[in-house]
Amino acid sequence: MAKQRMLQFVNVERDMPEKRPPDLRAHDFNEIYAEYATEKAAEQAGRCSQCGVPYCQSHCPLHNNIPDWLRMTAEGRLQEAYELAQATNTFPEICGRICPQDRLCEGNCVIEQSGHGTVTIGSVEKYITDTAWENGWVKPAAPSQERPESVGIIGAGPGGLAAADMLRRQGVQVTVYDRYDRAGGLLTYGIPGFKLEKDVVMRRIDQLEQGGVTFKMNCNVGDDITFAELQKTHDAILIATGVYKSRELPAPGVGAQGIVRAIDFLTASNRKSFGDKVPEFDSGELNAEGKRVVVIGGGDTAMDCLRTSIRQGATSVKCLYRRDEANMPGSMREVANAKEEGVEFVWLSAPKGFAGDTVEGVMVSKMRLGAPDASGRQSPEIIEGADYVEDADLVIMALGFEPEALPALWDVPELEVTRWGTVKADFRTHETSLPGVYACGDIQRGASLVVWAIRDGREAAEAILDQINAAAQVAAE
Questions:
Q1: pLDDT tens digits for range 409-424
Q2: CATH top-level class of 150-243+403-476
Q3: Where in the numbering of this chain does the Dihydroprymidine dehydrogenase domain appear (predicted)?
Q4: b/e 119-142 (16+ beta carbons within 10 angstroms → b)
Q5: In sequence order, what are the beta bridge partners of 438?
Q6: Of 4, 158, 333, 386, whose Cβ has the fewest other Cβ atoms within 10 Å?
Q7: Which of 51, 157, 145 is nearest to 105 (CA)?
Q8: Angle CA 369–372–373, to nearest 5
């Protein structure tokens, strides 16, 4: 009788890959989780209950076929597992590393709800795809027939790259334009190496280039090339710029030296990991070494800044957040990792100003949670008379991101935007107000998760294919 591979959650406890001790990992930018051994990956995948209605799949933005590739992993059919994972997700090894599984697939696992501990979906997904790379199963696009149609993609982040991959596999000519010197967007310069080592991103970029995607780097649309020129060059355009404009905090002293933006701080750190010359880092402006660091914000970007500061050798690292831990938007797993590494969280605290021409401290108002706001979250209220100063040599503002004013930057006033400044586009076809122009990812939906950008990019690619196929059919008639 064949051994029962699945439904082992009653007999086998949840077991994450080994995590490096905090006192070791806090001194480097290597990923903190080890890789599963083959036997352990099969064992943990076998804990899946093979639900008739898989909530893990329905709560994944990409609707990955999680139960089936878990079963294949448990049965040792790893190449089939990879092919199934890749069928719905362009970058499964990246999502396996950085998706907040505790809020998505794993957070909705049925056996978690029954008290047995969730299946370690993200770690198995990472294992499957890393194994595929090691065995040469990951292949560049090799379309059976080249097409004459051309698509220009503005932005080399996860949304743009996902669309580029899908379009190239159908033989479409794809050119990606990006303002930076390396592709990847926030995957390359925004997310620290301890969550996503950079060779993982770079090998995907190499694969896309091998598959025929053309990259034009250091190319700023609006300066180096106009949007009108792109429209003349390509049959369709996909706007996938992301959102990079940092939200500001209108408070006294906010312009003081030593108050920096999260994106600048993280980009400098990641550039150093590539071996680049970074004068702002070397001068100490964007370097936490020897400093009392205060990070303002409670999202995943704030967690990245906190944990990066620890690794750079800060003397103390504190996070100010205006709500309590239960109402924090960042991943609970990231909060736990930050605490282990020595970060101090100061809950129910909001900045009201900054002391010193070169920052010496943050003036803090203590808060309490009052009545729920329109979203259902309790609104923070100031406790009168409880203000104090939090000493700081470096303050990192991690308050989120907003879209740049693209119609003005690109001289295309007819490109419609929402009242939030995001590009107005259909959420199914991703078509904008301009014929043949599409948008995807954060520039359409606002600052969100990498997995949503991948989904948007794939959907936009399908819509673009529909458009050029329809145009080709009309031309043939």
A1: 999 999 999 999 999 9
A2: alpha beta
A3: 25-136
A4: bbbbbbbbbbbbbbeeeeebeebe
A5: 238, 431
A6: 4
A7: 51
A8: 115
